[in-house]
Amino acid sequence: MQIHRLSHEEALRALGTSDQGLSDAEAARRLEQFGLNELRAAEKIPYLAMLGKQFTHFLALLLWAAAALAFAADRMKPGEGMDLLGWAIIGVIAVNALFSFVQEYKAERAIIALKRLLPIHVKVLRLGEIKDLPASMLVPGDLVILAEGDRVPADGRVISSALLRVNNAPLTGESIPKIRRAEAVAEGTLLQSPNIVFAGTNVLSGTARSVIFATGMTTEFGKIAHLTSAVETEMSPLRREIVKVTRLIAVLSVGIGLAFFGLGVLIGRSFWENFVFAVGILVANVPEGLLPTVTLSLAVGAQRMAKRKALIKNLPSVETLGCTSVICTDKTGTLTENRMAVTRIYIDGREVQVSGGSFITEAGAQVPAGLLDRWAPLFAIATGCNDARRRHDVDGKGTAFVGDPTEIALLQFAGTVSRDSANATLRLHEFPFDADRKRMTTIHRTASGKRVAYVKGAPELLLPLCRLIYRDGAATLL
Known about the structure:
By secondary structure, this protein is of the alpha+beta class. It has helices at about 10-15, 25-35, 45-55, 60-75, 80-110, 170, 220-230, 235-265, 270-285, 290-305, 315-320, 370-375, 375-385, 405-415, 460; strands at about 120-125, 130-135, 145, 155-165, 180, 195, 200-215, 345, 350-355, 360, 390, 400, 425-430, 440-445, 450-455, 470, 475.
């Protein structure tokens, strides 16, 4: 079913629902049929098994064999310190295993954060009644109410929209706001459709109602989660080389031990003397220091990566990343922090640097307060022609901004000075930004009763529409 090509009435009929939503009984039946709206984790390895794996890889097994031979040699010929060597080897294995286990445990806990991209509660319309339900209880056919600041709980077809814009960066990596509307589209894929909202994405502004058509692992977000858990694990280049080296060392050690055992027999030494001597040579050839040396060097690399916000699940992956020579990407959003800030403005024929609430001219001088007063219209447009807002706690204190990153940057920029120009106006209407106009327009009523339009957008389309330029506190002809 290509739901994005259906009208919203056809979409409702296809999903067996109406604009009043499902009944609780029908929702319960569908919940049993489709399951909870959750991301199912891949088969989890128990922590004891994860710890045990650190004691049973090839190099660890070689060290276990060396420790066993050391204890056997001490039992046959006590007093030569072979027991101390055996305990030292076991200590090396234990320290290395615990270190690697802690690293994997931390990464495992961090990966669980993927589920936090989905909301906990959502507003759902059930037979015309708005209910606050756990997001996990959503089923195909449910009508969800979305508002600014919400996270989309499941894939849905928009059936009504009021200036809805979403950020699809969690899904596509692109942080450019996307307008969502209810009209059907004739072509394009589901991911490109302007009438579809996807699980895990954020609502930047506006409100909408959407009918859910995919939940849990059937959502686009769920498919990505499945891909991350279904990737087959291969040995890293470093691990392959270590296995190769340890096998070579094992063969050489056994070969040398057997050779000296045979040489001892030829010169007439007793069997036990030859055996203990051969064991000593074999244990001496086992590189006990190789395992902790490799582990500690990789751990240092993992910690350095962690400081740069890069999560390394397995220690050998550090070396694998180091082998990478070329990274191919076409996603701008995946390589940025999805944050913007105003650092420079061009006004009154001059370039001014904005830094920490200060305005600095090219000559390095502070812009005087009187000049800032003349720039009041700039701050009024930055705050008035803007849908971003500050989210407040119960006590009224601002905690964070919500909205489009570009508009948040403008709001923060205008907030660096104390201006009430925008507060003195009342917004009457808005013409939202779209791809054709490439500008946003808001109509306001000033304190004196006049109407004024604030516009922001692409310079190449706005400048040809202008006849006047605002400079030195006055508007003059261009």
